[in-house]
Amino acid sequence: MVANSSKSGGAMPPRNTELAHPKPPVHPPVPPPRRSEVVLPPLETPLQPPAGFRAVQPMSISLPASPGSFGVPTPTAVTTDSADLRRQAMANAARGPHRLAAQDKGSNSVRFTQPDREAMMFRSQPIPGPPPARLASRAGRARSRAGAMHWDRRYDSFKTWSGKLERQITHLAGGPDGLEDDGEDDVGDVVGSHSHRTCATSVPEVDRFYAALEGPELDQLKPSEDLVLPSDATWPFLLRFPISAFGICMGVSSQAILWKVIALSVPTEFLHVTAKVNLVLWCVSVALMCAVSATYSCKVVFFFEAVRREYYHPIRVNFFFAPWITCLYLAIGVPHAVTRATRLPHWLWYVLMAPLLCLALKIYGQWMSGGQRRLSKVANPSNHLSLLGNFVGAQLGATMGLREGPIFFFAVGLAHYVVLFVTLYQRLPTNETLPKELHPVFFLFVAAPSVSSVAWSKITGEFEHISKVTFFVGMFLYASLGVRINFFRGFRFSLAWWAYTSPMAGAAAAAIQYSTEVDNAFTKALCVALSAVATLTVAALLATTMVHAFVLRNLFPNDICIAISERKVKPIMELQESDGNDIEATDAGATEA
Question: Record's InterPro entries (predicted)?
Fold first, then answer.
């Protein structure tokens, strides 16, 4: 750099060019991408330029070629503080692999040189992570994604498609191709001991149901038995929804019939009951029937194996008549304002009776076949449900104006009722005795005689001797069950309680029909008493059901009766003993030989 002289024209003394023009430092060639030039002020050395001159010293800084020294701060701007520059140089020499070297002896410049690559140590610096809250949220999202992509395969043996449809939907949604294998790895440690149980595809025999189950509806597992489904978890709702839920629909729809008869009959005119009660109950019955039917239809679609096991259950199979009986009740209990304007078509009766006929052919045929499902072995009070449809269908057909069809079903129902009645009274040694907790279903003894008396009166047009005989039989059975107060102690709530609401309503309706024929104070009092008992029973059961469903939330527990194994699994001790006996028998045979 050239210094400016004074403006005077006189001769100037000779100047020290070395001081005015210091030699620039000689630097080794460095590639441009790895080098930057920063101009720094001169260091405080004894050799200073004279006053009036300003010297500028260049400084070369070589940036490291590796990320090992990225954490070392480097000067990036021109500064006038020499102390800061010295502190920066000392810090670089102490922390980084750079070396502070002086250039030529006559130079005051400072140069940072890059050390040899062989002597350099590359150390990775830790990357600062997110806060713990964000890590927890990420872990939760990861677990939720993993749970959504891996399906619980413990219930595949009861699913209609065994989980294939769910995996196809997941694959279409962008899931991995190896979902099935990954699901096995992830769920395997969860199911653990249940891995050998999910292969149950065959239905247990009738003897197996009686050997493995106990309780009021054969729905409680014996301590020595095992399940094919996990017992320590709550099953899907559809698996816990039983066919016996249609008993609720039967109870409410039978009340609609009862209040229709009360509003239209002469012996109960003094009660001044309006037909709107029948309309409200009928609408509620239709709503309940639609809800229960839709729910159980979903169970048929998604868990058909569970429905199949219910059908082979010796008690649950009788509740498969309940949906069609409820439809018959709804047809009989249609509000009078509707039937006055238009009569029900005849084809409706044939549509409703066709499924009942198919079920009757199947069930009654098993009773007579002499096999494992012969009547002497599987007879129980719930078998009355399979007979009740014949009499209710006969009543509806006679109300519509049909004749031959109602007589046919009345005859079939009467013949099988006599056989069932005698079988249940005998209690043969081959018949499995049910516990006393099933006593609500014992009121089904009353249903068939009461409904048959009304059905025969509709067929003949009057309440004649046959109707009276069946009515008296029903009243006697009603009284014999009512006086046994011990039956009402020591049992827990169950959906089976709804089974005797329909017989009570049928008995009250039959009493009103009988009071029409025999009109006196006693028959009127009997009508009022039976109607009050039936109504209060339904109201109490409805309130109890609501409490268990929405407050206690135990209305639908795990349906144990559909999850028993095909055969009893021997405990480990029994297996070891049997293996030891086999080995001893083999050794004994070898010794004799």
Answer: SLAC/SLAH, SLAC1/Mae1/Ssu1/TehA, Voltage-dep_anion_channel_sf
Strand partners, 263: none
Query: Torsion angle, CA of 560/563/569/571, rounded to 10 degrees?
Result: -40
| Burial of 140: CB neighbours in 10 Å, binned 0-12, 13-18, 19+ | exposed
Question: CA 384 to CA 481: how far, in whole Å?
Answer: 16
Measured CA to CA, the distance from residue 276 to residue 264 in angstroms comes to 12
Residue 431 to residue 420: CA distance in whole angstroms: 12
pLDDT tens per residue, range 537-580: 999 998 999 999 899 989 999 999 999 988 776 554 444 555 55
Sheet holding 110-113, edge to edge: 35-40, 57-62, 110-113, 99-102
pLDDT on residue 138: 60
| Phi and psi torsions of 113, nearest 5° | -110, 150
What residues have CB less than 8 Å from 593, skipping those under 6 apart?
Answer: none
User: Are 211 and 568 a contacting pair, CB within 8 Å?
Assistant: yes
DSSP annotation string for 293-318: HHHHHHHHHH-HHHHHHHHHSTTGGG
DSSP state of 235: P
SS3 265: coil
Query: Do the bridges between strand 99-102 and strand 110-113 make them parallel or antiparallel, or are there none, so unpaired?
Result: antiparallel
CA distance 256 to 119: 98
Domain 237-426+438-561 of CATH type 3.30.930.10: no
Give which of 284, 359, 268 is closest to 329, Cα–Cα. Answer: 284
Please state, in angstroms and rounded to a whole number, the distance separating the CA atoms of residues 259 and 276: 9
Report the distance separating Cα 208 and Cα 313, nearest Å.
Answer: 10
- Count other Cβ atoms within 10 Å, centred on residue 350: 13
Helix ranges restricted to H, 461-559 = 465-482, 501-517, 521-546
Phi, psi of 61 (to 5 degrees): -125, 120
Residue type, 544: T
Alpha-carbon gap, residue 241 to 293, rounded angstroms: 11
| Token output for 28 | 């080794």
**Beta-ladder partners of 101:** 111
Predicted structure pTM score = 0.69
Name the CA dihedral angle for 278, 279, 280, 281, rounded to a multiple of 10 degrees.
50
Question: Highest mean pLDDT range out of 42-46, 135-139, 172-176, 189-193?
Answer: 135-139
pLDDT, tens digit, for every residue of 293-344?
A: 999 999 999 999 999 999 999 999 999 999 999 999 999 999 988 887 788 9
**Which residue type is seen at 18?**
E
Domain boundaries, the chain: 237-426+438-561
Torsions phi, psi of 66, nearest 5?
-120, 165
Burial class of 191 by CB neighbour count within 10 A (0 to 12, 13 to 18, 19+): middle
Q: DSSP assignment of 194-220, as one string?
A: GTTTTT--SPPPHHHHHHHEETTTT-E
- Alpha-carbon distance of 171 to 558, in angstroms, equals 31
What single DSSP character describes residue 11?
Answer: P
- Collapsing DSSP states into helix, strand and coil, what is residue 93? helix
In DSSP notation, 39-52 reads EEPPP--S--PPTT
Residue 338 to residues 335, 342, 516: CA-CA distances in angstroms?
A: 6, 6, 24
**Contact at 8 Å (CB) between 108 and 102?**
no
